[in-house]
């Protein structure tokens, strides 16, 4: 089992920045991808950014150039730095830990943290 706890959400104005943190614990060795997803009201959950154990990153087109995902293995934390926030970034942001490419497939979620961007 992997436990994920997000923090850092809040209410900001358009153009401002926020940094989300996700503290992970448990059998983290069993997963190989950490990521952030988000879900806006009335919409499906979507990928925001991921980082592999090897450090490779992937971003949704809508956040490229504005968001940065990073991980600090010494602190057991994955971060999402969000700059130049837009109202359309408003959503609940979820931390995710996943094992890809090998069986059994594993997938863990945090409880989510609300990000609200006012115009």
Rg: 14 Å
Query: Distance between termini?
Result: 40 Å
Largest sheet: 7 strands, mixed
The number of helical elements comes to 0
* Number of extended strands: 11
This entry's quaternary arrangement is single chain
Model regions low in confidence, pLDDT < 50 over at least 5 residues? none
Structural write-up:
The chain is mainly beta. 0% of the residues lie in helices and 56% in strands. The protein has no helices and 11 strands. It has strands spanning 2-7, 10-13, 18-26, 33-39, 46-52, 57-59, 67-72, 77-82, 91-99, 106-109, 113-118. The strands form 2 sheets. Strands 2, 4, 5, 6, 9, 10 and 11 form a 7-stranded mixed sheet that branches. Strands 1-3-8-7 form a 4-stranded antiparallel sheet, with no helix packed on it. The model has no long low-confidence stretch (mean pLDDT 96).
């Amino acid at each position: 089992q992997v436990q994920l706890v997000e923090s850092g959400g809040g209410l900001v104005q358009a153009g401002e920045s926020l940094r989300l943190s996700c503290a992970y614990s448990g059998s983290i060795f069993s997963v190989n991808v950490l990521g952030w997803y988000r879900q806006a009201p009335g919409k499906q959950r979507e990928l925001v950014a991921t980082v592999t154990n090897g450090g490779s990153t992937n971003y949704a087109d809508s956040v490229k150039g504005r968001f940065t995902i990073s991980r600090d293995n010494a602190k057991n934390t994955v971060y999402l730095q969000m700059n130049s926030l837009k109202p359309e970034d408003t959503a609940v942001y979820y931390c995710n830990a996943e094992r890809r490419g090998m069986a059994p497939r594993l997938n863990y979620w945090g409880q989510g943290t609300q990000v609200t961007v006012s115009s």
